[in-house]
From TrEMBL:
Protein name: Ketoacyl-ACP synthase III
UniProt keyword annotations, A-Z: Acyltransferase, Transferase
CDD domains, per database record: KAS_III
Biological process, per Gene Ontology: fatty acid biosynthetic process; secondary metabolite biosynthetic process
Keyword Ribosomal protein: no
GO molecular function: 3-oxoacyl-[acyl-carrier-protein] synthase activity
Domain Beta-ketoacyl-[acyl-carrier-protein] synthase III C-terminal per the UniProt entry, residue ranges: 260-360
Coiled-coil region: none
Length: 361
């Protein structure tokens, strides 16, 4: 009689994308400054065109004024619960990855108490006191790190069913005078994870996370506006794009390879590589570097699905949103079938990076 193994599997997914679409042309009237407080010399149409060439972003979604991050997270969670066909009272944990809390449309002030997980549990009207709800601020890799934490709860027998949410409203913490503000967007994605026994191992097969803080900590940070005339006590998301690009290119491909090696799975067995949708050119460069680590030049055209051109970078939400779109068969040319091996990977503030190998049950 074969022994049964316990697998951590996704049994339902959901997403919420705001209805407000913001195109690149909506930034034509912005006045952009550099980090020293000097106005950029190029016309905005030139700045925006170069931005599109580098990032691949044409438009993004912003939350409507009456909504905050926990609203987006709640709606994504509600859809995931419905997709899984479960009673929310049976959830053992609710883990919510985010970075800025419930920032209102009228203020960039961070609001993180009570925790967003508690707010979402309240919105879901879950009465069970043993449904433990907590937040996970871990930069853009936060949702994937939540998956890893949930995996340990499930494998230990401490839990049977967990909701992991990634939600963010980055539009509320961007500096309108910084061209990098065009990168960021809003959204939420969620999955239900369960422990399932079977003869073959499926679901989460392996994971790996790194945190580099000696010199890299503040490459993504909260700082005043580049416009010296804007009150300098207000803080906005800022980044050193060049250093982050170089870090991601050096770290993420090797991290994925190390994770695959730990799982004893060859790159040729991977059906999809789902990378945090941060920057199209950066993601393409990371994929190319990954294949070069294996001595391969040919990259399958459909291995890395992208949503950044129309959804922008909504931080912790990019991976669960991308997964949900593919799982529902809503991304042309991409699908996931039973037995497919998938890589999830992300990189962001901290600096943190992580990877997960997942086999579709």
């Amino acid at each position: 009689m074969p022994s049964l193994s316990l697998s951590t599997v996704i049994t339902g997914s959901g997403r919420f994308l705001p209805t407000q679409v913001v195109s690149n042309d909506d930034f034509l009237e912005n006045v952009f400054f550099d980090a020293s407080g000097k106005k950029l010399i190029h016309d905005n149409d030139v700045i925006i065109q170069k931005f599109k060439q580098i990032t691949g972003i044409q438009e993004r979604r912003y939350a409507t004024p009456e909504m905050v991050t926990s609203d987006l997270g709640f709606l994504a969670a509600q859809e995931a619960i419905q997709n899984a066909g479960i009673d929310p009272e049976t959830l053992d944990y609710i883990i919510v990855a985010h970075n800025f809390g419930d920032v209102k449309a009228t203020s960039s002030r961070v609001d993180m108490m009570p925790p967003l997980a508690s707010r979402i549990k309240h919105k879901l009207q879950i009465a069970n006191p043993y449904t433990v709800a907590y937040d996970l601020p871990f930069g853009c890799p936060g949702w994937l790190q939540g998956i890893i934490q949930a995996h340990y709860f499930l494998q230990s027998g401490d839990a049977k069913r967990i909701l992991v949410i990634g939600a963010e409203t980055l539009s509320r913490v961007t500096d309108a005078h910084d061209r990098d503000s065009m990168i960021y967007s809003d959204g939420a994605g969620a999955v239900i994870l369960e422990a399932r026994a079977g003869e073959s191992k499926n679901g989460l097969l392996q994971h790996l996370t790194v945190s580099d803080t000696l010199t890299q900590t503040f490459w993504l940070n909260s700082s005043p506006s580049y416009n010296p005339e804007v009150p300098q006590e207000d803080l906005y998301i800022k980044m050193d794009g060049r250093k982050i690009y170089e870090y991601a290119l050096k770290t993420v491909p090797q991290l994925i390879k190390d994770c695959l090696d730990k799982a004893n799975i060859p790159l040729s067995a991977i059906k999809k590589v789902l990378i945090h949708q941060a920057n199209e050119k950066m993601d393409e460069a990371m994929l190319e570097r990954l294949f070069k680590l294996y001595g391969q030049d040919h990259i399958p055209e459909d291995i890395m699905p992208m949503t950044i051109s129309t959804l922008g970078n909504n931080s912790v939400a990019t991976l669960p949103v991308l997964y949900d779109i593919i799982a529902r068969g809503e991304l042309s040319g991409h699908s996931l079938e039973s037995g497919d091996a998938v890589v999830f990977a992300s990189v962001g503030a901290g600096m943190n990076a992580n990877a997960v190998i997942y086999r579709i049950p």
